[in-house]
Amino acid sequence: MSSIDYSEKIPNNVNLSEDRTLQRALEQWQPNYLQWWGDMGPEGSQNFDVYLRTAISVDPQGWAQFGHVKMPDYRWGIFLNPAEKDRKIHFGDHLGEAAWQDVPGEHRANLRRIIVTQGDTEPASVEQQRHLGLTCPSQYDLRNLFQVNVEEGRHLWAMVYLLHKYFGRDGREEGEALLERRSGNADNPRILQAFNEKTPDWLSFFMFTYFTDRDGKFQLCALAESSFDPLARTTKFMLTEEAHHMFVGESGVSRVIQRSCAAMNELKTDDPAKLRAAGVIDLPTIQRYLNFHFSVTIDLFGADQSSNAAIFYSSGLKGRFEEGRRADDHVLKGQHYKVLEVQGGQFVERDVPMLNALNEVLRDDYIKDSVGGVERWNKVIEKAGIPFRLKVPHKAFHRNIGALAGVKVSPDGRVVHDHEWNQNVEHWLPTDEDRAFVASLMGRVVEPGKFANWIAPPMMGINRQPVNFDYVRFN
Ligand SMILES: [Fe+2]
Ligand SMILES: [Fe+2]
């Protein structure tokens, strides 16, 4: 079960050849996917040989095989974690019943919506990142970008497999629509707003992979609990790929900080103008990028009170983060959770039914998790002896969804008047000048072992290769 058959047109570990109808449907979708990759995948990259990892089995030991591949020839396929014997539903109204191997009719519409919404983010991020290869700071980073991109492509395959296999004609139509929407397109945009924003430069890319791919992790963790067993098994394998994306973000930002701190110490200054003149990114600008990406990403968890969230949980479609490790009754009826609101210029906490607050529960778990990496970034600054600390902004800062939408709150968590907001917003969110400055640093560095001036080299290469390895052959 866990080994992957690469002799087939579509590599898989789901015995695809035993289901001819499904196989044919997916083989019809495959050229459309490749067409989409050609149109919307990494710009100008079709002929590059890239040192990519490919899954050879879903076992922890056999996960990855590394080698140079042209991205259009990457073996995108369908890989599920092995089935757990006699798996039981472990939360919601069906607690204790057998997990579903098929979609129950009454949950069909909601499950389809959940799968489509998740699936839509995958090609969206490839589209958002498609120009970044032109301004890569090194071959090493270029390779990491491409690795993230091909895996997001595979995540789309994962969701399209579920749509084709379990949702019939509707599912096939959704599979086509996933290749038709375009990030940022006014007429046919991607479903979630953060996936219609631009990722214009590499600082944005690293922030995106740190913060927004981490949203992906939390959504996938919640779906990995699902009573719909094929969804749980698919998302479990996707999570092993997601970990690398967050690594790219965390280590990328860390290396930017390391380089900035080194320049601060060399030049004995914290003056942003002098640091910018020296071609590195000043820490306050990094903080503003952090504020932007954090606030846009926490909106992705949805409204703090949501009857849909309650339905998804009670009916067993979507669990909580680490549902199995929690010590409550896993039904949550009659329980409460505190959500934050602003009333008369003051924060107030309101007790609301827990089931309706599950988006907020997931958001709060996400916030706890994302703070960890920021503390590791601060260690880099501390080690350089610089008295500056990065901080995630207050969760009410710059929100656009839920009870906190549009409320004016400073990053340190004070409700402020419009006047104070307007006077300070340029210190809190990236300005056009910040973005133009960061853009001005983005040149293309592709000589093996060379790095752009604004970022430090990594500690180690990929798969124990040296840092100056030929990660991408341009041909
Ligand atoms: Fe993904
Ligand atoms: Fe990802």
Adjacency order of strands in the biggest sheet: 2-1-5
Q: How does CATH name the architecture? A: Orthogonal Bundle
Structural class based on helices, strands and sheet pairing: mainly alpha
**Major sheet attributes:** 3 strands, antiparallel
Low-confidence stretches: none
The proportion of residues in beta strands is 5-15%
Query: How many separate domains?
Result: 1
- How many strand segments? 5
Helix fraction, binned, reads 40-55%
CATH topology: Ribonucleotide Reductase, subunit A
Total helical elements = 12
What's the order of the H and E elements?
Answer: HEEHHHHHHHHEEHHHE
Rounded Rg? 23 Å
Rounded to the nearest angstrom, the distance between the terminal CA atoms is: 38 Å
Q: Determine and state the CATH class.
A: Mainly Alpha
| Global mean pLDDT | 96
- CATH homologous superfamily grouping: Ribonucleotide Reductase, subunit A
Structure description:
With 475 residues, this protein is mainly alpha-helical. The chain has a single domain, classed as Ribonucleotide Reductase, subunit A (Orthogonal Bundle), CATH 1.10.620.20. 47% of the residues lie in helices and 7% in strands. Strands 2-1-5 form a three-stranded antiparallel β-sheet. It has a two-stranded antiparallel ribbon with strand order 3-4. A hairpin with an 8-residue loop joins strand 1 and strand 2. Helix 1 runs antiparallel to helix 3, helix 2 runs parallel beside helix 4 and helix 6 runs parallel beside helix 10. The chain is globular. Bound molecules: fe (ii) ion (FE2) (2 copies). One fe (ii) ion (FE2) binds next to helix 3.
